[in-house]
Amino acid sequence: xxxxxxxxxxxxxxxxxxxxxxxxxxxxxxxxxxxxxxxxxxxxxxxxxxxxxxxxxxxxxxxxxxxxxxxxxxxxxxxxxxxxxxxxxxxxxxxxxxxxxxxxxxxxxxxxxxxxxxxxxxxxxxxxxxxxxxxxxxxxxxxxxxxxxxxxxxxxxxxxxxxxxxxxxxxxxxxxxxxxxxxxxxxxxxxxxxxxxxxxxxxxxxxxxxxxxxxxxxxxxxxx
Length: 224
Ligand code: ADP
Ligand code: ADP
Known about the structure:
Layout (H helix, E strand, L loop, with lengths): L3 E11 L4 E12 L4 E5 L6 H8 L7 E6 L2 E2 L5 H11 E4 L11 H6 L10 H14 L15 H14 L4 E5 L7 H18 L3 E4 L3 H6 L2 E6 L2 E2 L2
Parallel strand pairs: 3-8, 3-9, 6-7, 7-8
Antiparallel strand pairs: 1-2, 1-4, 4-5, 9-10
Helix pairs in contact: 4-5, 5-6
The site of one adenosine-5'-diphosphate (ADP) has 12 residues, from strand 2 and helix 1.
């Protein structure tokens, strides 16, 4: 089964005065090992799509499946561990905790894992930092790092939990083109060499062309 499957999804945001249809009849599958980019103009529904894929929000209509099982069939508690264990997030603005060292930031998602000792958590976090080329920066604090380095920490944090899929919301959006290119190279390496499944929202057509598949949205509908 696909890692993630969205079937006939509709998402309507309802406020007291306005009803916005953010996604319209969207169906798509993300298979293991894919690197998919999501493109489209501002307001077309990219963030909404990512939050549904990340199980952070529910569709108004339709079904989301993880590994072939509908998300609705999970209890609230199982859904929380599903979100924590199967999905890694990367954000445009990194979302690191400035009071924690780099290695402590990377360990964060592991704190909620039962059966992992402090020693194993540290070992895993250091290995992930090595993997993203930050082996020499593990005791630094986020504000001592460049933007590109901060995003590498966030990628190491996303990888630490060994998720089935990484969801990246404009991961190079705050970076200059050189650092953005380096982050893109790292994501491509993780996908090609380690088989990491990635869905990435981007505004950058050149970046999107480097991924294996592009999903294009316009006014909440898929155009391809
Ligand atoms: P994108 O990420 O492509 O810019 P979004 O998914 O953020 O698009 O938004 C899609 C549409 O849904 C837009 O019209 C936006 O104004 C609306 N929208 C997004 N979030 C909310 C919300 N929490 N409440 C009401 N409307 C929303
Ligand atoms: P860039 O030019 O790539 O944006 P910076 O000028 O921010 O990078 O940082 C260059 C190097 O200096 C980086 O390797 C970073 O780790 C280090 N560095 C930056 N600020 C500090 C600081 N306040 N304390 C210690 N090291 C720092």
